[in-house]
Amino acid sequence: MSEKMTGKPSIDRPWLNIYPDFMKNIQIPECSLWDYFKMNCPGEDVAAIHYYGEDILWKTVFEQAEATACALKALGLGEGDQIPVFLRAVPEFMYLLLAAEKIGASVLCRDNTLEENVEAVAKAGAKVIFVHDFLSQRALNAYLEGSGVEKVIMLEALHSGSRDAMPDYVQECLDANYPGKKAQGPAVVSWDKFLEDGRKMKGKAEAPTDINRPLLRAYTSGSTGPSKQVIHSAHTIIGVVHQLNFYGNADGFRPTWLITILPPALVAVVISMMVMPMASNKLLILDPFCAPEDVDLEMMRYRPNVWPIIPLFIETVMQNGRVPDDYDMSHLLSSGVGCESYNNKQIHNAEKFLAAHNCHVNFSVAYGCSEAGSNLTIPSLTRPMTDGCVGLPMSLTTVSIFKPGTQEELSYNQYGEICVSGPGVMLGYDNEEATAESLQTHADGKVWLHTGDIGYMSEDGNLFALTRGAAPRFEGGDLATLPMENCLANANIEGIADEFFVVVPDDEHEGYFLPYLYVVLEDGYKLEDVEAKIRASLESYMQPEKITVLPERPFFHFKTNRIGMKNAVLEERKAKKVKCA
Fold it and tell me: How far apart, in whole angstroms, are the C-alpha atoms of residue 534 and residue 202?
């Protein structure tokens, strides 16, 4: 450590030494999202979005957003209202987001169970919701009876696209959404009728501009714990986007940016996968009705320059066997994964696959969370993305490590809770107690987001994210999932194709945890062929209570289904206790 370093990352900010001056000195514009798009629009006659065979011009985006704002106002919506939007990543979602901002309202997104979605609508006090035309009668009745909703605006899935432009397998996926009995009744209003009523609206739709009022409300997926409503404003959205606008850029041509499947119920999808490419002169390709198992076909069909390859997607591309050996993936200008930690074996497999298909960009592992507006780091320029390295904090974002449960900042290479302060941090949750726990004003006067994730920072400013929450074992040692997985990955045990750990509460020692290991074996191998080598490669405190063989890695909301595995262990324990009793 140099003499000028204080030992506190929040003061030293060593990552800035790697940034060029222009990125250190950028300023977040104090403007609405509408004005931000206007500032960065490459021309109103340029296509902003491609949606199943149709190019949607920037002019159309602005016109449709204006029309949508008038229609919302005609429904009696205005400042402070929450507008539940249960749409896939279709162009109309962006119109609703911009329209909500114009009238001073916020969009509310959730993609959980029907019961949880109804609960969210009731909590919002919403009288109007937006859904696709494949809403079932049962679901409609649930909203009408359980949430106080009075009108349901129904949008055709292909209102802005062409079915003829869809491959058969995408048409089949779309068709599978339609129930035997579609929603109908006096509460249902078509999107076209909704817009028509807006054209009759008299008066002004716009509310006074307030870039700090709620604009996007999205519930977390519940894949790591109870689902929470995260609230962002235009300012926090732009605070992330403006730091990322360089990502995926190219000289000499306009890059394309593909989104497959991922819904706007996820903060990362709205901010870093929809708003960001649109605001940085990329053609956003929306492909929401591709089935997860067909992302490899859509990647080859669109040949995008940027494609958010979350773990589920890259695993599908590698495992399906439909990407020919001679397929050239050099169309990708960037390649990496977000969503969850990636262990060394997963990284090695992905890098090997990409290199074999002529894609030689650095494979990156991003880090962020909904509460931070999705992104906190950019790919590292100084070290490989292994051993939990998730790159450098964005230029205007301060990241440091604190002793868990405190505001005591730790120094370099010390494990603790990852905390962040910067322009992309959420306004809060819809729960004051949870907000106060996560957003804390420290002695430096800054508001810090306590993420609950455990990691450390190296002296060159690289962040290492290792696990979710501290998990001590009764006999000693902390069960950080990624370091445990990397012990196995680095051992390179013959016969293991994939592996991951799940940490479960120790029911005999309150406040402590136990590790459970899940492995996917190569053809011809059994657990007894690898178990001794597994245990030899792990330190004593890492020894799993049980090793379970799975046919493949399970996913939930696009992440490894650790919560499902944990619940299965808890149910198994419960059943054993009942049997013993």
Answer: 71
Amino acid of residue 379? P
Residue 541 neighbours by CB distance under 10 Å: 15
At 483, list the tokens: 């370091």
CB 243, CB 394: distance < 8 Å: yes
Alpha-carbon distance 473 to 2, whole Å?
36
Dihedral sign, Cα of residue 61, residue 429, residue 554, residue 178? negative
Beta bridge partners of 54: 51
- What is the rounded distance in angstroms from the CA atom of residue 451 to the CA atom of residue 442? 15
Burial track 426-443 (b if 16+ CB lie within 10 A, e otherwise)? bbbbbeeeebeebbbebe
Instruction: Locate 357 and state its tokens.
Output: 């298909």
Give, rounded to a whole angstrom, the gap between the first and last alpha carbons of the chain. Answer: 59
3-state secondary structure at position 361: coil
Contact 48, 57 (CB under 8 A): yes
- Residue with token string 């696009």: 558
Three-state DSSP string of 447-473: EEEEEEEEEEECCCCCEEEEEECCCEC
- Span 45-82, pLDDT tens digits: 999 999 999 999 999 999 999 999 999 999 999 999 99
Q: Which of helix, strand or coil describes residue 99?
A: helix
Q: What are phi and psi of 463, to 5 degrees?
A: -95, 140
Cα(297)–Cα(2) distance, integer angstroms:
51
Task: List b or e across 23-61, with b for residues whose CB sees 16 or more CB atoms inside 10 angstroms.
Answer: eeeeebeebbbbbbbeebbeeeeebbbbbbeeebebebb
In this structure, the dihedral spanned by the alpha carbons of residues 79, 102, 308 and 111, taken in order and rounded to 10 degrees, is 30
In 10 A of CB 129, how many CB atoms? Answer: 26
Q: How far apart are CA 488 and CA 521, in angstroms?
A: 13
Interval 251-288: pLDDT, tens: 889 999 999 999 999 999 999 999 999 999 999 999 99
Cross-strand pairs, 498? 520
Q: How far is CA 387 from CA 21, 68, 343, 365, 543, in A?
A: 29, 47, 7, 11, 19
